[in-house]
Amino acid sequence: MSNFFVVLPALSHLQLGKTIFQNGLDHSLNIRKAQPPKVLESEWVSVASFARDNKTGTPLVVDAQTGSWLVACGTWFHQDDYGSGQEQRLLKRYLHVGANQLGQELEGFFVIIVGNSESKEVWIITDIIGSCHAFVRSWKGVLALSNSSLLLGCLDQVTLDPVGCQEFINTGVVYEDRTIYHEVKKLEPGQVYCLREGMKKTQTSYWNITDLSPNSLDNKVAVDRLVDSLVSATKRITQVYPNLVCDLTSGYDSRAVVAAFLNSQSSFSTTVSGEVNSPDVVISSSIAKAFGISHLHMAFDAPLSFQQVKESLRYTDGEYDLIEYSRILRVHQTLSQSYDLSVNGSFGEVARGYWWELLYPSAGKSVPLDAQQIARKRYVTQMVDESFFSQDHRLNLVSHFAHMIQHTNAGLEGCPNTLQMDHAYLRLRMQRWQGKIASSTNQLWPCVSPCMFRSVLEVMLQTSTNFRRRGLFVRQMLETILPQLAEFPLEHGWPAVPVRWNTVHKFWPVPMYFGKKVIDKLASKSGLARGASSTAVSELSMRLRMWKEEEVQDLFASSTLMEEGFIESRALSRFLEQSRTTEFCFDEQWSRLLSLEYAFSTVKQAMKPLPL
Fold first, then answer.
1. Domain carrying residue 490
2. CA pair distance 366, 77, nearest whole angstrom
3. What mean pLDDT is predicted for residues 411-426?
4. Better-scored residue on pLDDT, 491 or 285
5. Is residue 201 part of a domain?
6. Residue 522 counted as domain residue
């Protein structure tokens, strides 16, 4: 539920600050069932740090001479080749150079909180993507900080945010600085915050995509830079976490990360999840065998109970589908018993110009994005039932997301549209979707992607448009770093090597693959689409099985959401009644509704209104 909790009161609100801090400790112990935290209390600030489930991380360290302290959440690395576990050294570096310079020297997935006892200021540094989530809640004269929005929601009376809740129920993600609670906000990425006496004093950006030079790297220079930065990142990770396990699928991104680990001669294992005959499992197993890598196939066939689903709340805060994360959690709980760190290839898709197909034929030109098109084709992609949101609060989802894209990219209109797309993708999609998964997993054990290291990501973002298209950049990188690995087929049958006259014969599955996509699309439009997928069948059986559990029935029967002003009670009752049938077709929306209902009911039961 929480790795850190900080309360910063003004001098005139010390008692309120103490009450809020004690309430937060009680909620953390009761809801998370956490071990007692490390606590430091003074007149001007109170701070608590909680270990992960595997008993690592988030130490609270204090400088003996100044009394200043530091809490580091996530998986961080310093440019001088040290990282998580050496927080005392990081604190000394802060005391020497300050927070703004320290932000420039860090990489990885992190939130760093420093208390300066001399100035009585709290400094916060967020990673450049904002993937490691941190939240703030304020009262008159008091600020509370935590990486758990659920914890902050429990501290006092709270109301649901109609916009955040609709985003979550309809798409599975909460965006921008919102949470599902109106009173709790997320901290922004790439920032240095200074807080003092219960309020924000300053906020400074230490990383901005406009500081980069798009299209400044090309061909061999870009490949060499990516190889060097990725290999360097894997070496730094291994120095801090020598016993790690790395995701390996049939795609580009995990393969690039594995290639970098092999090139750096690091010791590591790999893992894959899925059905035994799936391309991910078959291809990853072949790769691991060829290179002598210890490889684990994770498969869980046993159905989930609602008790297991509820367990996910203390990891996700209810801002990720609890049923979906329960499946992820089972994998990580097993892996965390044998390894110290989970590595994945997230952000590797940036090197391949992710979502750029929507920009053609104008990719690379300095023209504004078509925000409506991007919203419709990449953010509002699922069929949903919006009837239970009141007319006064109901969002036009396409217009809502189009506005977000425009707002996020304000000031970038003169940049290449490819850079604009990258920026929107990182600031919206990856910060809140990938970041929520990673932040949830960080409650259990450390996780990181070398592709989100600043040194790696900046190479990708500055590589030319033409070289990043159609995966050429990554293909050439793989062929350069480890040719044998590039020869293995990808998910659809062709290899990860560049297309040349002497390799073109290896791409014979390409026309078959795209032909099948065209046929499937035409069939879908004509109403002749194939039967339900195995995923859809699985979701159907999961929903009906959940409905058989008495606790789920009671939860919806005493719905706390129906008390909220943006919910139409009759329409919600009708939606829930229809969800008990096999003909119901909004399984994912139902699952998120269950997640929100359970999260909000937990908060309402736990919260104690403050005597303000």
1. 212-351+432-498
2. 35
3. 96
4. 285
5. yes
6. no
